[in-house]
């Protein structure tokens, strides 16, 4: 199977399997797992923050970050297309008593600037719940892997500071953004107060995400992580693979981007598909099936019979994600399979 449903399906590299088998271990709740400590130090350094914390998943990382920043009854300002809003089971609301206030996302992943100003307005008005945190997402999943550039992050950070608010970045695929921009990831993270990034997506580790920020933030998040059941004891087995992810797997993301561009270029030329290939900046390709004769479900089932997996993404949209383990030849095979299914 050529599995393009997500970069979460990536399997650990041989070096990761060795690292996790040989990791030096201890009890991380006591702060005594040397491999976790090494990963957290490395991660904090790489993203230019005072401290970092290993968490079980991107969802747990975002939740711990939001609960560390905001109190019950406070608002979280976030994009209408954000992953936190759509796909994290409403955790910050259900478990933390926070209120999601969405601001429309523009197609390029930014927040509508006028709507953002409106959302931040009248902070002294007793009718309004106070704001606890603002969130951005980079790359932006539902906006097709769109990249937010440093200048934009800086702009929102300045605005957040003017309002005395922290800015959190859901940077699940932040290294994809840095590679696409050909910048050190610190150019992105310096403009946010906290960040969550995933080891287990394009970086191919089997489990884990990292959150990073100031010492105060990470100390608060560590307590929330414990509350959420995320004190993982001998977590060095996860961290061992995570260290390989950060040291060996970042630069190769460029291959995934090249494969995604090739896929988008080929699909865009096919009858039955609507796709703007110039919008594909990283490893996510979202397209629309414009032939009413075939439903997305039929398309995906027929594609599966051809040995290719993609994911439905709401309405008539389909998402394909390139990643470690998908070669250029497999992308060509996937293109041929789509052509066969659409009868082109
Ligand atoms: N995204 C998954 C699905 O949940 C949709 C995927 O296949 O893309 N932030 C962003 C931007 C994400 O894309 C994801 C995962 C997460 C957070 C959550 O990470 P996990 O799955 O580790 O909880």
Overall description:
The strands form three sheets. This protein has a seven-stranded mixed β-sheet, with helices on both faces. Strands 9-10-13-12 form a four-stranded antiparallel β-sheet. A two-stranded parallel ribbon has the order 1-11. The chain has 14 helices and 13 strands. The protein is globular. The chain has helices spanning about 15-20, 35-45, 60-70, 85, 90-95, 115-120, 150-160, 175-180, 185-190, 215-225, 235-250, 255-270, 295-305, 330-340; strands at about 1-5, 50-55, 75-80, 100-105, 130-135, 165-170, 195-200, 210-215, 275, 285-290, 310, 310, 315-320. It has two domains: about 10-250, Aspartate Aminotransferase, domain 2 (3-Layer(aba) Sandwich); about 250-344, Aspartate Aminotransferase, domain 1. It has about 350 residues and is an alpha/beta fold. β5 (about 130-135), α7 and β6 form a beta-alpha-beta unit. The chain is about 40% helix and about 15% strand. The mean pLDDT is about 95.
Secondary-structure class: alpha/beta
Contiguous helical run count = 14
CATH class of the largest domain, anyone? Alpha Beta
Shape: globular
**Whole-number count of domains:** 2
CATH architecture descriptor name of the largest domain: 3-Layer(aba) Sandwich
Q: How far from one another are the termini? A: 22 Å
Name the bound molecules: ligand TLP
The CATH topology annotation of the largest domain reads as: Aspartate Aminotransferase, domain 2
Sheet with most strands: strand arrangement: 2-8-7-6-5-3-4
Radius of gyration: 20 Å
